[in-house]
Structures are given as C-alpha cells and as structure tokens.
Design goal:
Blueprint lengths: L5 H8 L12 E6 L6 E9 L2 E10 L2 H14 L4 H5 L3 H7 L8 H21 L4 H9 L4
Antiparallel strand pairs: 1-2, 2-3
Helix pairs in contact: 1-2, 2-4, 2-5, 4-5
Bound molecules: FE2/S2 (inorganic) cluster.
C-alpha cells in the first residue's frame, strides 16, 4: 500500500486556499518545535461565518495537505463549527495519514484555533464561552 493516500497527494500537489488575507479578521500561527515546520492561517469572518480562509505552510507534504484540507473544511462554516474541527477529522478527510505524520495534522487544528482565538480577542468575545459552546458537541 502506498504510504500516502491519493487525497493527500492531491492536496499536497494542488493545495487549496494558499496565500494570505491582507485584512484578515483573525490570524493564527503555530509551529512544531521538533520538525521546525510552521503554519499560518488567515480568516475572514463576517457575522460569525468564515467567508474566506487562506494559509501559508512552511513544512512537510502532510502539513501542506492537512492545511489545504482543513481550510476547505471550515470555509463557509460558522466560527463555532470551526472550533470543533479536530486533527483526526482532517486526517480522516484525507483518507488517513501515516502514524508518524499525524502530528502534521495537529498543526492545522492548532493554527485554526489560534486564528479563531485571535478573532475572539479582537472582538472581545469571551473565548471561554466560545470554547464551552463547542464542548458539548465535541465527542
Ligand atoms: Fe513537521 Fe509534518 S513533519 S509538520
């Protein structure tokens, strides 16, 4: 069996939503200290809906595929739905990642949460309330 699924290869070779949003409502950046990879997510939010999302990833193929898939999964969704996105869901949507590459999908989840947190802070939305709202639907 090939190490990477066709979906991973597709999103790696044709990543969606690459770029930056100049007037982003929220920006998130995370890095993985071990591999040194960095991911940045830009969100354009209107009325709690993610109207647009872009990413820049300086990292491995799995990190690029994960950011591409994750941005597709939250586009058009509400910020509360986006808060619920887990790295597991991203990996599943990619038809799986090799075990030693699962941490790459964690970067995508964290970068999105980071960008949402930035948006909540900028708009004085209590972050706890937002987190609470998604907790009961988490599992
Ligand atoms: Fe670092 Fe994939 S090896 S994010």
């Amino acid at each position: 069996m090939a190490l990477y699924s066709e979906k991973v290869m597709d999103h790696f070779t044709h990543p969606r939503n690459v770029g930056i949003i100049e007037d982003a409502s929220g920006v998130g950046e995370v890095g993985n200290a071990k591999c040194g990879d960095i991911m940045k997510i830009y969100l354009k939010i209107e009325n709690d809906i993610i109207k647009d999302v872009k990413f820049e990833t300086f990292g491995c193929g799995s990190a690029i595929a994960s950011s591409s898939m994750a941005t597709e999964m939250i586009k058009g969704k509400s910020i509360y739905e986006a808060m619920k996105l887990t790295n597991k869901a991203v990996a599943e949507a990619l038809d799986g990642l090799p075990a030693h590459k699962m941490h790459c999908s964690v970067l995508a989840e964290e970068a999105i949460k980071n960008a949402l947190e930035d948006y909540f802070k900028k708009n004085n939305i209590p972050y706890d309330a937002a987190t609470l709202e998604c907790e009961h639907v988490h599992e």
